[in-house]
Amino acid sequence: MPDRYNQRGNNQRANGQRGDDRRSNDRPANLVGGNNGENRARFREDVFYRNTNQGTRNTLRPAKAQGMANGAPVAQNGAYPVADQQLSDFSRSSATYQRGGRARTRASEAEAQFAQRLQGASEPPAERQQTQRGPQEAPYQTQQAHRQAQQARQQVHETRQPHPQQPYPQNPQQPRQPYGMPQNGYRQNQFQRGSAAYGDVPHYDVHASRSERARAKNGYQGYSATRRVQAQRNGSNLTGEAAYYGDANRYSAKRAKKPINKVAVGVIIAVAVVLAVGVWIFMNPRSFPVTVNGIEYTVDRGTTVGDLIDEGYAAPMPGNLLAIDGNVIETGGGAEYSGMINGDENNDRTTEVHKEDVITINNGGDTTEDFTEEQVEIAPQTVSGGIGSLHVFLEGEPGIVNRKTGVVSGITQDEPVKEVVNAGYVKFNADPGQKVIALTFDDGPWPTSTAQILDVLDQYGAKATFFTIGNQVSDNADVVKRAKAAGHQVATHTWDHASGSGQGVNLGYMTAEEQIQEVEKGFGVLDDLFGEKVSRVFRSPGGNFSGDTVTNLQPYVTAEIGWNIDTEDWRRPGVDAIVSQIESASSGNVILMHDGGGDRSQTVEALSIALPYLVNQGYQFVTIDELLAMQDYSKIKVEE
Fold first, then answer.
1. Domain with 578 in it: what CATH number?
2. What is d(CA 145, CA 410) in angstroms, rounded to the nearest whole number?
């Protein structure tokens, strides 16, 4: 051991008060002077202590220098000094880490001597009294003061309450912090780290647990566990805190993971793979039986329907390729075959067959060529002619067809979307699609017979059309209005029945101007009587309507009405003859009768007999306008 410690003691003894100053400021008072090994060990221990814990040294040494004359521990900056035994333990730990094996040996020797002195030595050893210079009472008084301070500190530790800086956490899920710990971390400054920050926790315990906390994943695991272990080793009274952190092992201990048996896992995977391969081979054998058209064959995996046909298991005949109009474009150009698999239709030759499939392969069917589609408008044609009771001027309406054009053949085919209505003058018979008859009366109105006919019609709920002579309307206006009010149709039979140049029977004998005048005057008197424009339907005198008369009157009329049955009642052939003609009518027929121009008593009596008969046959009686409204003009066919 170097002599610098002995030299320093000699210097202090020689200098007197100077040694006392150094003893009070640089080292503990009980380590002053002497050449014995005890003093040198204690001084070396103090040096180690200063090197390892600067913050604790600043708090501890002034307290020890004062000697604790009053027997109570002195607080420095709010912290209590630690006991000498704690200092010795901490010094031993620090020396072990910082000075190696040699330092541990020396620290252990110093500790043994220091512990022996603290455990009951009331008097300083004799050899120490002999070698120590200066006042003989100082070492002994220092030891006595030290023991009194130690006892006082022990009492403080036993009665001290937890540091009020950090209350217990109220939330059980929130980890509790150690006593005296600030909310924002383990330390705030050097002084708190050495003393007040940890409350009544010994300094060496704080520093010893800090390294363990650095190695721990969670800050409180190492702290609580270290404090509990250190408290048991030092015998400190940390019962409350140890109980508080009694479940620390629950956070620090990790559940041991059961090791995975890699061999077993590998065996399981291998078995699973073998089973999967076996199932796949069982479900997909290299060859298997199938039935084609009632005969069983063995085929290889991956065989398709096309393969069956190509290899001769079936020999279907293909169908033909047809144009859009049904004609054959190419023989054998249709479908290759018509097939079924297990009862489901299948015509795809790339379909793979499977084990025990039942396959039917028949001859292919005909197919129609591909085509394009477009909608085309059809212009109306101007027509003239036909046979029938209805002579109508048609304005014409364009039709629309869906036109298909074959891609291969180029043939076109039209499918009607809207029928075309041809323009011109056409004659046709009504096709109303129901049992209706149109009753017509000419040459009225007549003073007596027109009213009698209206009575019979009203009795059977029949409607009729009255073709009046214009110059007779004014004199019989009441009966004409009655007919209109009863739902009958009132139309014109020209102004004066083509008198004059028309000889009373034929408009064709008259000039174009006279023809137009005859018709216009007849419509005009009715318009004036009813206060509205009547329908431009008329009947030409004698039924003579053809040639130039048609062309001349087309702008003024919409239709000229003929007849299907002529009762010739104007000749008065007898009631039975008239009845027979009326009862012979069929659906859509127009019947010609007269309500004026003479005695029409036979007509009235015949009408009262025939109407009940037709009603019993299920016929209804309609006006000319109603009959025309039931007609589909697009279906009219002109017949020469």
1. 3.20.20.370
2. 131
